[in-house]
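If I may wish for something, please sit down with the protein I am sending here and say whether tokens and residues agree:
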Amino acid sequence: MGYRTIQTLLYGEESLISTDAKLKSDMPKVYRKTYVDFKGRAKSGISRVGNGIIICRFEKTPPPRNPKDVVCPHFLELKWANGCYFDCAWCYLQGTYRFHPEWKNGKPNIKDFNLIEKHIAAFVKNNGIEPEILNSGELSDSLLAESRKTPFSRFIVNVLDKYDKDRKHKVLFLTKSIYVKNILEIKRPDRIIMSFSLNAYPVAERWERGAPPVKERIKAAKKVYDAGYTTRVRIDPMVPVDNWKEHYVELIDDIFKNFKPERITIGSLRGLASTINNAKDRSWTVYLSEKSNWGKKIDFNTRYEMYSTVINYLKENYDYSRVALCKETMEMWEKLGLDWRDIKCNCVQ
């Protein structure tokens, strides 16, 4: 299938309106597109609900055609909140929310739960038979509101149960938090996939100062893993600090001493221009020297060495190969001998 055909399919959009008269007046419109996956297969999927303020498909990365193009599948975002408490030095939300500094400086915006419920209802009613994962951690930490009177985890499970009677859809919780009390109490691994963002200890101590220590995150991940939840890991962004090989090997050993991730997604330090320009601490940018269509990156050879070190160590020491790359080029996937067309990364089924 040619690129021109793909582009035609990608941008042909239609509106759906619920036929249920009782719900029609309250439910937002649902828009669908025909998407083409990395194997050239076309299928219809929801592109957004209403204006996309709550549910919208991430499609900023077009299908890769050239070696330098970034590989990233199109997943559904559940934009229930904006901002984060943890204030990591390289967080891209610094650029995304440059006109809302309060959202990235300790005062995230949590959206109205009634509005979220309406958008979930429309999504479920118009989705068809295709199961989807709703990524709740793209614009905020997924466990941001767990200490509230109505924790987001309990709320979203109840809403999905109300409208998705067949239990097709799941929510992805991506987090650096260790507050998993509600996740453990509701006991719903059929609805929630847990994913923990981890990094080498000196890297996290230097640039993730507002987040809980990595060892504590690993303990929290073990708790939900032992409770039966699908538990994923993101080691992203990897940074080539002094003795980085030893540090990332130590991290991997500590993870596997506690639990075996369902999958591991690795990525390296990168910075969009908007992120770099709005970052309070730019010390991490000294590692960036290569331009890409997803901002500045660490040079290709160093990235390759970091990835191959982790991939080979996992294979040789743990017989583990369920590894994918995040926001990496087609060229890198192929040099590592990985099949980007069959990507199984953090944000997808």
Residues 1-23 have pLDDT under 50 and may be disordered. The chain has one domain: 3-342.
